[in-house]
Design goal:
The chain is α+β, with helices and mostly antiparallel strands. Helices cover 30% and strands 44% of the residues. The chain has two helices and five strands, in the order αβββαββ. Strands 1-2-3-4-5 form a five-stranded mixed sheet. The protein is globular.
Length: 118
């Protein structure tokens, strides 16, 4: 499976997980000049800016390690831009979803709430 399809699979898998767990999906693949946010969701208390990382189950580095400080700063700037045009009373939260795959299917999933501060 090519990298783009693998990433899309991870995002769909994460969106399904969020919906099953009571979240509303507000937006997906939100893009602006600051960057991109994979999924924007709400649990009615938080507006969650979710970075999805999909990796092979035997990856050398964990998926969360790919969300380094520079990536976090881009996501935070993008989230601020989103919020400037979409007023909300919800508390912002930055989450990371790790999807690990084998033979084109998810074999492990880890959802990290409040993975870093904005």
């Amino acid at each position: 499976m090519d990298k783009r399809l693998t990433g899309a699979y991870g995002e769909v898998y994460t969106a399904r997980y969020l919906r099953v767990n009571g979240y509303d999906i507000i937006d997906a693949n939100f893009r602006c000049r600051m960057g991109e946010i994979d999924i924007i969701a709400s649990d009615r208390k938080h507006i969650c800016f979710v970075e999805v990382k999909t990796r092979d189950e035997n990856a050398v580095y964990s998926a969360r390690e790919a969300v380094d400080e520079a990536k976090q700063k881009r996501i935070i700037k993008t989230a601020r831009f989103f919020l400037s045009g979409n007023k909300t009373y919800l508390q912002p939260r930055f989450d990371v979803a790790e999807v690990y795959m084998k033979d084109g299917k998810a074999v492990s999933f880890n959802y990290i709430k409040n993975a870093y501060n904005g």
